[in-house]
Specification:
Radius of gyration: 17 Å
Shape: globular
Number of domains: 1
Helix content: 25-40%
CATH superfamily: ApbE-like domains
CATH class: Alpha Beta
Strand order of the largest sheet: 1-2-3-6-7-8-9
Number of strands: 10
Strand content: 25-35%
CATH architecture: Roll
Structural class: alpha+beta
Amino acid sequence: MMSAAAWGADSERVARALDAAHDSVDRIDSLIRHHRTIPALDSMRREMRRRTGVTLAIDSLAPGYALDRAALALAGAVDSVLLDVGGQYLWIGAPGRLTHRAVGVPDPDNTLRQLATVDLRDGSMRTRAERSAPPGAVRSVTVLAPSALLASAWAAALFELGCDRALTEAPGVSVVCADSTGVRWTRELQNRVSLPAARAP
């Protein structure tokens, strides 16, 4: 199920594009449920296995792929759009302007609280988390990437690898990771991540 907020000058054209985007997501969901092969997902699974040693489940990649396909259906019809499939976001801002949205990283033990807030610019944000993680284990990995499929893939893989590796081994994406040592993030997110007042140093 995809939720969307889109803006554009021609409201009828935006509405038609949103219908096409929803249809695209529904088609992908149907393919996954019927165990049909999706070459892009198989290719990404092989690539992530080669790069990280982690074998990803198709289900962990499907939301990202669906978001990217939905964005293709919206191309040219909207000025900007925020899409959400299963808690993964894809933000496409107005061309030629720096636009952004503040998106919370939920606390896996209480989703009414946030571990952090991230300034999301164009691209996708995916969080993988585990409730009641044992001491020393990863609680949450959030990945920001240019495409939703990349964000899905890296979030799933890095969650398995742990925060220390997550913060050093993911080229082309940005990472916010939470474990027993706290909430940390990659250098390029400096000044784009804020912690709740009680967690701020």
